[in-house]
Design goal:
Layout: H1 2-17, H2 20-176
Length: about 180
C-alpha cells in the first residue's frame, strides 16, 4: 500500500513540475513500484494460501484421526452390542426353555390334579353310597333290635302262658283223672 502511495506521490510531483522527463521517470517508477506492490501482494497471498492449506491439511489429519477414533469406538460399540445381544439371546433361550418346562410341569400337575379330583369324587360317591348302605343297615339293625325285643317279650308272655298252662293243666288233669 505504501508503494502505491509513493508511486502516486511521484506522479503528482512530476506532473506539478511539468517536465516530460520527470513524468516519464515518474511513470517508470510508478510501474516499478506497482509491480513491486503486486509482487509483494502476490507473495503474501501465496503465503496465506500455503498457510491455509497447511492448516486445512492439519485439520484434515486431525479429522482423519478423530474419524479413526470414532470408527474404532463404533467397532468396539458394535462388538459390545453384538456380545450383549448374543448373551441376551442365550438368556432368552434359557428363559424360554424354563418357561416351556414350567408349562409342561403345570400341565402335568393339572392332569394329576384332575385325576386326583376324579378319585376324590369317586371316593365321595362311594362314601355316600356306603353311608346310605350304613344308614340302611343301621335302620335294619334298629328294626331287628325292636323285633328281637318284641319277640323276647312275646317269648316271655308265651313262657308265662305255658307256665300258667302247665300249672293249671297238670292240676286240671289230675282233677279229671
Amino acid at each position: 500500500m505504501i508503494l502505491l502511495l509513493a508511486a502516486c506521490g511521484s506522479i503528482a510531483v512530476a506532473v506539478t513540475v511539468g517536465s516530460f522527463t520527470a513524468v516519464t521517470v515518474s511513470a517508470v517508477v510508478a510501474v516499478l513500484l506497482g509491480s513491486g506492490a503486486t509482487a509483494l501482494t502476490h507473495a503474501e497471498l501465496m503465503d496465506s494460501r500455503r498457510e491455509n492449506a497447511r492448516a486445512r491439511a492439519q485439520e484434515a489429519r486431525a479429522f482423519a484421526g478423530l474419524t479413526e477414533a470414532r470408527a474404532a469406538e463404533n467397532a468396539a460399540f458394535v462388538e459390545s452390542m453384538t456380545e450383549q445381544l448374543t448373551r441376551n439371546q442365550a438368556t432368552l433361550a434359557q428363559v424360554e426353555d424354563a418357561l416351556c418346562a414350567a408349562q409342561h410341569r403345570a400341565a402335568e400337575t393339572a392332569r394329576q390334579l384332575k385325576a386326583e379330583k376324579r378319585l376324590v369324587e369317586a371316593a365321595e360317591v362311594k362314601t355316600l353310597r356306603t353311608a346310605a348302605k350304613l344308614d340302611e343297615a343301621e335302620e335294619r339293625a334298629a328294626e331287628a333290635i325292636v323285633r328281637v325285643a318284641e319277640l323276647e317279650q312275646e317269648r316271655d308272655v308265651l313262657k308265662a302262658e305255658l307256665a300258667a298252662w302247665e300249672s293249671v293243666g297238670v292240676e286240671g288233669l289230675r282233677k279229671h283223672a
